[in-house]
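RECORD TYPE: inverse folding
INPUT: structure tokens
STRUCTURE:
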């Protein structure tokens, strides 16, 4: 893997890990109270991700940003699929990591709230 793709994967991983981890922590443990604290943790994650990825890849960290760079900033279109794949891998691994860390708490939360994962009722608003 080239340095730019590694930068995108690592940066996206960190951004998604901090962001979804903050939400999971808030909902499942109550450790973060309110939107301000969750957003602050997410902002730290974005900042760390940018500092790490920027020297390697420019820190796009988002497929829409990469597409915008192709359209408006003469980013090479041939690199678009590789960047998108690196971002997808980074985000997927981060999501899996959050699931592994918070999985048991999520299962207890679902049982307590009567949520059946995958059921049609689970996606309907209350």
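DESIGNED SEQUENCE:
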């Amino acid at each position: 893997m080239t340095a730019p793709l590694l930068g995108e994967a690592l940066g996206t991983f960190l951004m998604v890990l901090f962001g979804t981890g903050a939400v999971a922590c808030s909902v499942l443990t109550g450790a973060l109270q309110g939107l301000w604290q969750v957003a602050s943790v997410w902002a730290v994650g974005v900042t760390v991700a940018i500092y790490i990825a920027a020297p390697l890849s420019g820190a796009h960290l988002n497929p829409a940003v990469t597409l915008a760079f192709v359209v408006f900033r003469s980013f090479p279109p041939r690199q678009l699929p590789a960047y998108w794949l690196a971002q997808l891998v980074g985000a997927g691994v981060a999501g899996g990591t959050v699931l592994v860390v918070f999985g048991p708490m999520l299962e207890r939360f679902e049982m307590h709230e009567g949520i059946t994962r995958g059921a049609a009722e689970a996606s309907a608003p209350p």
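NOTES: The domain at 3-123 is CATH 1.20.1080.10 (Glycerol uptake facilitator protein).
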